[in-house]
UniProtKB/TrEMBL annotation:
Signal peptide as annotated in the record: 1-22
Keywords on record: Signal
Descriptive protein name: Ester cyclase
Pfam families linked to this entry: SnoaL (PF07366)
Organism: Shewanella colwelliana
Superkingdom, natural source: Bacteria
Length: 169
């Protein structure tokens, strides 16, 4: 019963927090080992960052990320910090202008959040020399965030680029 109460409390909190966002996201599954101010703060940071990937709106990235946060698994050549994330989103949206994400699963434990995403859209733009023809894009990704004082300080991420590239070629 305690787990259900915690789950319901965190879900209600999450819904109330994100109802004011222009494009609110809610996880399909939310699991937290605690109902506390820390769990609320970690959840808010994770969902702000998810809203950034869903909308491309830099205000969500700036709200979620420490200015000099560490990307622990950066792609080769990516600029560090928020600037690198903003550039990555912008470049990806040039290829998939209608990009949106779903949060399939959010797991919060102490200062960490693990989030399972589903990136969706259509490849109608351009990536490198390849011009899209409307191909459906639908691939998973998993991120792990370390959060302190309401900001993501470190991010580990893994995107299923094999699936993505097989869909656009």
């Amino acid at each position: 019963m305690n787990k259900m109460t915690n789950l319901l409390g965190m879900t209600a909190l999450l819904l109330a927090t994100h109802m004011v966002s222009a494009n609110p996201l809610t996880p399909q599954i939310l699991v937290s080992n605690q109902q506390s101010p820390l769990a609320k703060t970690v959840t808010e940071a994770a969902m702000s960052y998810a809203n950034f990937w869903n909308t491309g709106d830099a205000k969500f990235a700036r709200k979620a990320l420490l200015e000099d946060f560490q990307d622990m698994t950066p792609p080769e050549g990516r600029e560090a910090g928020i600037a690198g994330v903003l550039a990555a989103s912008s470049q990806f949206r040039q290829a998939v202008p209608n990009l949106h994400v779903e949060v399939e699963h959010l797991l919060v434990s102490d200062n960490y959040a693990t989030i399972r995403y589903r990136f969706k859209g259509n490849f109608t733009g351009k990536m490198g020399e390849k011009q899209g023809a409307g191909q459906v894009v639908d691939f998973p990704a998993v991120d792990i965030y370390e959060v302190h004082q309401g900001k993501i300080t470190k991010n580990w991420h893994l995107e299923d680029y094999y699936t993505f590239f097989s869909q656009i070629h």
